[in-house]
Amino acid sequence: MHDFNGIEIKKEDLLDSVKAMYKEKRRLVMINGYINENRENVIAYNFDVNGDITTYLVKGEEILPSITPIYSASARWAEEEIEEMMNMKFDGLNRSGRLFLPEEFKDGEGQILVMPLSELKKYKDK
Q1: Dihedrals φ, ψ of 105, to 5°?
Q2: Domain containing 73 — which CATH number?
C-alpha cells in the first residue's frame, strides 16, 4: 500500500513543480479534480516517485495553466475531462471537443457532477 504524499501548492507554483517532476523523469500518473467540503475546486496532480505517488494539490482556483506543453497527451485527456465535468478551465489547453457530453448540452458548458437521469434523457432526444 502506498502512503499519501499530498503537497498543497499555489497556482503560481504549479508549472515550476510540474517542470521539476518532468526534469526528474517522473511519470504523470493522473490528474483528478473534485470539490471539497468547502465547495472549492481541488485539482490533484499525481506523480510516480520511486514507486510511491506524490500528489500536488491546487485548491480554490477556477483557472489553472495547462500542463499539456510539458506532459502532452498524458495531461490532455485529464484536463479536458476536468473542464467538461467541473467549473474549471485550463489556460492554454487546446480542446479536441467534448469527451462525454453532447455539444449542445447546456450550450456546451456546465457541470454534470450530479443530475437526475430523467433530466439527462431529455437532451438525448434533442
Answers
A1: -65, 120
A2: 3.30.460.80
Residue 67 domain-assigned (yes or no): yes
The domain tally of the chain equals: 1
Residue 1 lies in a domain: no
Query: Residue 55: which of 97, 98, 18 has the closest Cα?
Result: 18
Contact 73, 22 (CB under 8 A): no
Determine the structural domain holding residue 90 and report its residue range: 7-123
Confidence at residue 86, expressed as pLDDT on a 0 to 100 scale: 85
Q: pLDDT digit string (tens) for 69-88?
A: 999 989 998 998 888 888 89
